[in-house]
Amino acid sequence: MVQIDKLRKILKNTSLNAFVGWTMILLLALLGIGNFIYGRFMWTILIAFVISIIITPAIRMRKLSVMPSWYFIFLVILPIVGSSTAWYFFSTSIPFYVSVATIALLLAAEINWFTSVKMTYKFAILLVIVTTLAISGLWHLIEWLLDIYLGTSYLLSGLSPDAINDAVMQQFIYATIAGVAAGVLFGWYFMSAGNSYLVDVPTHISVETDDYITHRPPAPIRRLLGISDKTQVLAVRMLQGGLILLLLFGILRKDLSTTINATTGLILTFVPHMITRKYHIKQDTGLVLWLTLAIFLHTIGTFEFYNYIDNWDHVTHALSASVVAAAGYTLIRAIDIYVDEIYIPPRVLFIFILIFVLAMGVIWEIIEFLSDELTSTLGYNAILAQHGIGDTMLDLVFDLLGAILAATWGTAYLSNISYRLADKFEELADKKNAR
Fold this sequence. Notes:
- The protein has 2 domains: about 5-190, no CATH class; about 210-435, no CATH class.
- It contains 16 helices and 2 strands.
- It has helices at about 15-35, 40-60, 70-85, 95-115, 120-150, 160-190, 210-215, 220-225, 230-250, 255-270, 270-280, 285-310, 310-340, 345-380, 390-415, 415-435, and strands spanning about 10, 65-70.
- It has a two-stranded antiparallel ribbon with strand order 1-2.
- Helix 13 (about 310-340) crosses helix 14 (about 345-380) and helix 13 (about 310-340) packs across helix 16 (about 415-435).
- The two termini are about 20 Å apart.
- This is DUF2238 domain-containing protein.
């Protein structure tokens, strides 16, 4: 059965939709010129980027009548019009992040249509949610870096570091709400809109690159570490023993932070074993050691290390981010292998991993912020603490460094796990179909 590309429901080929769409493009162009005249060059660049995304289908298909449905364009441009004209329609930045999510959806669809990358609408929606969070984190990180090194005042505007951090956390929460809401809205649209009158989009044939072929079968991660499985298992058990000691010490000292972190961390170290028992996916001991080490360093950090060793927090963030990146790589690559309608070339997968880890970093910062606020309200010591905007932004920097490390080595040392996971997907699907 031929799968229908539901992403094509974004496009319309009608005179009315084309008229409304090009009218909005004209409005954006005028705003872009106005922003350029008044020296608002960032907004000019943003508007030019948005226009290019909206008109790409018309240019690539050489049909001026082919445009995204006007309501997608409306979601994109409304916050831009408000900010460019100083007419502020909204009391929060949620509509801005809905605009970001819509831009991400249009961009994902066009990448699917006009490049070798292939994705389903469900994968595109997941990518939209993740991208919305990642853009929020990246935007504030860039502003912070510009303030630090160029003396601008995008974030560092005279308020205390904690006050600025609270404002940024609010933006992260808005981005999360908007991303999830947009994902639900887009999912409903793709499911409810009819399949008739779909615009014919020329298909781009995907060819598996040499990068993927030459890494079959890939080397297990123990080759990277250069030590035997037996030694790695012993190291894992020693780290788990250390977590148990930290747990007991936290209980004896009535230290809520250490107790909760040690308990949660200890449980997480057994997750690979539980997955192996339930789904019979052979675990890579090197990856388990990688995970356990990251958890142990974070947990022992709550026992004074974070307070007395300056860069301990950033090192653990980099290591934890590399684990998240490894998990993200393994899962996305497994989906790529299993689902015929999805194809992600290695270089694109590298970018996806960075987006995924940055989004997870934003979520982690939100969790730290909410945990800090909750424990402060209840009168307890913070389980997860933040220390101002500088600490948060450096966390994101080290998250990206860890992601780059894992994404760089992923194809060579993680693909074998992806193939096992893809085989399990196929086995579970066969069992479901046999019922």
